[in-house]
Amino acid sequence: MKYEFNTDKEFDIIAIGRACIDLNATEYNRPMEETMTFTKYVGGSPANIAIGSSKLGLRAGFIGKIADDQHGRFIEQYMRGVGIDTSSMVIDTEGHKTGLAFTEIKSPEECSILMYREDVADLYLAPSEVNENYIKRSKVLLVSGTALAKSPSREAVLKAINLAKRNGVKVIFELDYRPYTWKSTEETAVYYSLVAEQSDVVIGTRDEFDVMENAKDGMNADTINYLFKHSPDLVVIKHGVEGSYAYAKSGETFRGQAYKTQVLKTFGAGDSYASAFLYALISGKDIETALKYGSASASIVVSKHSSSEAMPTVKEIEELIASAETISV
Amino acid sequence: MKYEFNTDKEFDIIAIGRACIDLNATEYNRPMEETMTFTKYVGGSPANIAIGSSKLGLRAGFIGKIADDQHGRFIEQYMRGVGIDTSSMVIDTEGHKTGLAFTEIKSPEECSILMYREDVADLYLAPSEVNENYIKRSKVLLVSGTALAKSPSREAVLKAINLAKRNGVKVIFELDYRPYTWKSTEETAVYYSLVAEQSDVVIGTRDEFDVMENAKDGMNADTINYLFKHSPDLVVIKHGVEGSYAYAKSGETFRGQAYKTQVLKTFGAGDSYASAFLYALISGKDIETALKYGSASASIVVSKHSSSEAMPTVKEIEELIASAETISV
Amino acid sequence: MKYEFNTDKEFDIIAIGRACIDLNATEYNRPMEETMTFTKYVGGSPANIAIGSSKLGLRAGFIGKIADDQHGRFIEQYMRGVGIDTSSMVIDTEGHKTGLAFTEIKSPEECSILMYREDVADLYLAPSEVNENYIKRSKVLLVSGTALAKSPSREAVLKAINLAKRNGVKVIFELDYRPYTWKSTEETAVYYSLVAEQSDVVIGTRDEFDVMENAKDGMNADTINYLFKHSPDLVVIKHGVEGSYAYAKSGETFRGQAYKTQVLKTFGAGDSYASAFLYALISGKDIETALKYGSASASIVVSKHSSSEAMPTVKEIEELIASAETISV
Amino acid sequence: MKYEFNTDKEFDIIAIGRACIDLNATEYNRPMEETMTFTKYVGGSPANIAIGSSKLGLRAGFIGKIADDQHGRFIEQYMRGVGIDTSSMVIDTEGHKTGLAFTEIKSPEECSILMYREDVADLYLAPSEVNENYIKRSKVLLVSGTALAKSPSREAVLKAINLAKRNGVKVIFELDYRPYTWKSTEETAVYYSLVAEQSDVVIGTRDEFDVMENAKDGMNADTINYLFKHSPDLVVIKHGVEGSYAYAKSGETFRGQAYKTQVLKTFGAGDSYASAFLYALISGKDIETALKYGSASASIVVSKHSSSEAMPTVKEIEELIASAETISV
User: What is the crossing angle of helices C70-81 and C45-56, to 10°?
Assistant: First the structure.
């Protein structure tokens, strides 16, 4: 089964939300206190998805606000360098800083992130900075859940969704839940359900859908029963090493399996999954193949040091699908 | 034409939002600098609508947060005294104060309000304080636009709307636009359109609908064309002394005319209009009659000193409809 | 013993700090919930002291920030009307409101105040709005402790004190402690001791001196022992109905007794005390007489409805001293 | 001429203020956009001074608040490792982060810093966390001006100064002016003059003294004329490559000259100067020698990559004094 997109659009995908800096421990397999150097990469879920998509060959654009400093300029230059249209990236004029993520890799199983997200530039994107003429040029608007965490970014994204729907642009909602940015899970649930109800495709882990429902141990059947009463017609629910499920409103269900790999760290799995899954879907591959692309891409990225720089090519993904073993649970 | 409500509900109407204090100039027809005493009344649009509805005979409830002080207690006692169920009014525990409105009446044409709305208790109503079991007991959830102006009241109201829709409760959205509470008109437009699209009935002045559309000099035809693509099936647009229009999704249009009266001040016209219009609608009168009730009630309140205390009885409204002249424009 | 002032100054006293609105229950001897009308007066400790002093005949000025609205204009007009120089009162341009105090008089023994002090204009007086050329024209700079509670008013007052000391202007510090404006008593103690150490005269209740010392049940002997190591040479400590003590650095101690009166409410006692005490001191009366003036003025004000409007004349004070009984404890 | 300290104290110096993280460009002589790795050091003026002093042999302690995360733990471990008593370093419990300084070294003449100082842990040190029993154990309390920039750190430092003065501990004020933390130069001037007037020794650049005086192009003669009316009896004013001047209240003036060196970057000059100057002063060397120690230490640090790790030993300083040429201007 294939998923249909409007074909007369200039961009395949426009992502909206944060573009930040990852500072990854150069010396790893130790506590961060003992790490003395850090390597700089572009980071942030929607930026990573745009980078991953662009490296796979999609025509990608980005809407976001970046700091007026060396980190902000590095982000714009890097994203432009991998082929992303950065003409709708806005430079902050009020002194806000770039979000930072220091990553600690004690072992493949013990990874953590030390976040700097206080008053960061990306959360200051304003509704007036979101442009209807830009959004309507794309097949897809990719919305990252974290961009809903604070005003005015929240209103900028709600406006972008409204404009996408008025202009025949598919809204794809990557739940991307990061607790540190939100005031309460009640607040998250309010905006996650509001946006999910208006989206065409919703992607997240089982835990993230639980956050959307303000519930614990939710069942996929209840989730799709709820969402299919509203706009969504495709819902992807990820269950870690147990693989992922894609549910179509038409009634079909597809399962994707995870691939065995040498894990270095767990960061970046979700973003690489989303970029390859969307690449396949938008390129006209069927949903079952798209699930394989997502899993394969995630396997590759978790075996490497960065999240953005490590985004694979189509060739790497296809080779892994051809050769790697899947994980049976 | 009549508008249908779910009949097996205990409450006719539950209003959500602010309940405040009006301090009306006891000595009027002068600048406030020369007013030396002020008379205290309950105020705030949704509180006034609940009071007006209850005095007309509807079974009304209220969801809102009040200060833990003498003003907060006065509000709860007064509202309970006129027959409103106050069991879902929550007492603030963080020291927030009651909103205040000092009214200045220089002349019937020159009225102004000096507002105290900084960090007021009503805007701190939290989503966790909104209860599904309460909302589902009502035919109508009345939402006031001002309650959307700030978090967490904004999320509390968005949650209440979600719960109303899940439980067959009609959502009636009174735009009630107060510029001083909002950061920007862009922000207002985002939430007003989001909520209007999800409501069953939308009521406001032409100017307020322009705010919702982030536009100037909007046309009623465009407004209803937009809203009828979504949930609303009844839209009431008020044009001051030129009267008001009710548009039904079925295609019918109804016009109500304003009544001549001896104006003392302009405050309270909208709230008294809404309470009498809703009373008539919920009581099973046809839309045309409901428009007359709204206009008549507004005429009575603008001729009196307060907004809440002055809310008329059915008898007063019907006598005015029977005897007063309408304004021809 | 007399206290010496610089005689070649144009103003007797310039007060710095808040000028607010009191809304006194018109119907009293009941809970405020049952009070339906409120009477408006100018209030706020330094404003009251300026008003009291001016009515007694001192040449008074005022430095403070007032709201750009009807309440702000009323305050300026009233203060100008009683003879105060208001040329250094600054109009707020950022939408801050006038502080409000609703007074509840349940009985002479049960008085309370419902304060509106959130983001009030007076606390936004900035250091750049404090003018050396103005301050140096006065014999006395009267500083109210509450003006130290928040930035930028805090820095404006610290700057004013610095300028006073450079220009031979006596700094009189009225502790005027209001807990609701401060973050912690630790913070209050830091600024109260900092300012007290730099002042010439310090006036407060025993409880207020305890706050300055961040201690409980402090002894007057310890307080003066501490303060006389720094700038102060006169310290007045009030003990309610037990009367007040004035301690001079030279070693002399004076005691003032309270007068019997028909108490209506307790508000305004401190401000009326300070204005009459300072009037007497600046007029060249000896300290013992000044203590009598303070007590007599307080006795008169607590028997009346307002704090500012009720400030007595010299004749009233002298008649009371001549005729009233003192309280023996 | 020697400067006298109380000899019966356990610590030579206790510094109060910020301890942060420097992230220095590993690849330098280029814009930061092109730097891909950063090396981590402890930073922040008072931390650097404590580290420098401790490495020179002084018994040093530190009062400050650190984040409850990997960066905070690294700071405490590093400082303890160089011999500093960290028993009064408080761990933040409210989620505040460690301040960061990314350094860019385009060339020895073009250095800049990208700061993360929003809501950082060090500025949340509270007055209740400053302990009289700790402070009184030291000869010197070293106060860094930046710690005065925000509440509650501001009040913590004001309290520490008050306690130092009550207990015979010399207060040394390093002006350490960083504009990004302050609201206005007016505000800085208020606190800088307040603290300078209460200090025993004041150290800063000519530009920093101009900030204290809220003036431009100030003269050293006016500065010392003003400060010697208050507590200070030693004032050190630095003029970059032109050297520095030490003014004693007794009337003597001393000049120190800068040493020629191979400059890598300009960061850390002030902190290394202060630590070696104070080491010499506290060790009983005369003021002239102390100026040489300061200049020599600064020369060494600006030729190396870090500010803290590069702090020299006494041997290195003495060798440089013996061999290096001074700069003649």
Answer: 30
Q: Which of D20, D28, D40, D119 to mutate to test the interface with A (most CBs of A within 10 A)?
A: D40
For residue D189, the distance in angstroms to the closest alpha carbon of chain C comes to: 9
pLDDT for res C206: 97
| ipTM of the modeled complex | 0.95
pLDDT averaged over every residue in chain B: 96
- Give phi and psi for D195, each to the nearest 5: -75, -40
pLDDT band at A251; cut points 50, 70, 90: very high
Residues of D in contact with C162 (CB under 8 A): 190, 193-194
DSSP calls for C177-204: --GGG-S-HHHHHHHHHHHHHH-SEEEE
Whole-model pTM: value is: 0.95
CA distance to partner chain C, nearest, from residue D272 (Å) = 32
Name the percent of chain A in helix, strand, coil, to the closest 5: 40, 25, 35
Mean pLDDT, to the nearest integer, of D50-71? Answer: 98
Q: How far apart are CA A260 and CA A278, in angstroms?
A: 22
Q: Which two tokens stand for residue D6?
A: 């109380």
Chain C residues within 8 A of B80 when measuring between CB atoms: none
- Closest chain D residue to A68, measured at CA: D114
Name the closest residue on chain B to residue C119, using Cα atoms. B118
For chain B, the structural domain boundaries read: 11-18+45-73+80-93+126-323
Strands D138-144 and D110-116: what pairing?
Answer: unpaired
3-state secondary structure of B184: coil
Residue type for position D151: S
Q: Do D190 and C151 touch (CB under 8 A)?
A: no
Q: What is the mean pLDDT of residues D197-209?
A: 97
pLDDT value of residue D329:
66
Q: Dihedral through CA C161, CA C166, CA C172, CA C173, nearest 10?
A: 30
Mean per-residue pLDDT of chain A: 96
User: Residue B67 above 90 pLDDT?
Assistant: yes
CB pair distance less than 8 Å for D183 and C151? yes
Long-range contacts of C218-226 (CB under 8 A, 24+ apart): C220/C245, C220/C247
Span D63-82, pLDDT tens digits: 999 999 999 999 999 999 99
Interface test with D, best of A20, A34, A69, A71 (most D CBs within 10 A): A69
Alpha-carbon span D157 to C27, nearest angstrom: 49
Q: In what order do the strands lie in the sheet with B11-16?
A: B89-91, B60-66, B11-16, B138-144, B170-174, B201-205, B234-238, B244-248, B253-256
Burial class of residue A207 in the structure, from the number of CB atoms within 10 Å of its CB (0-12 exposed, 13-18 middle, 19+ buried)? middle
Q: What is the 3-state secondary structure (H, E, C) of D283-317?
A: CCCCHHHHHHHHHHHHHHHHCCCCCCCCCCCHHHH
**Contact yes or no for A39 and D36 at CB 8 A:** yes
Please report the DSSP string for C14-49 in residue order: EEES--EEEEEESS-SS-GGG--EEEEEEE-HHHHH
The residue-averaged pLDDT of A164-177 equals 97
Tokens matching residue B87? 């069991």
Are C296 and C326 in contact, with CB atoms under 8 Å apart? Answer: no
CA–CA distance, A111 with A18 (Å, rounded to integer): 22
Instruction: Read off the pLDDT of each residue in D317-324 and give the average, rounded to a whole number.
Output: 94
Per-residue pLDDT tens over the stretch C61-110? 999 999 999 999 999 999 999 999 999 999 999 999 999 999 999 988 88
Cα distance from N-terminal residue to C-terminal residue, chain B: 25
**Confidence at residue D7, expressed as pLDDT on a 0 to 100 scale:** 86
Q: Three-state secondary structure along C293-305?
A: HHHHHHHHHHCCC
Q: Are D148 and D27 in contact, with CB atoms under 8 Å apart?
A: no
Closest Cα to residue A308, out of A22, A25, A35? Answer: A22
CATH topology of domain B11-18+45-73+80-93+126-323: UDP-N-acetylmuramoyl-L-alanine:D-glutamate ligase (3.40.1190)
Tokens of A324: 């790697």
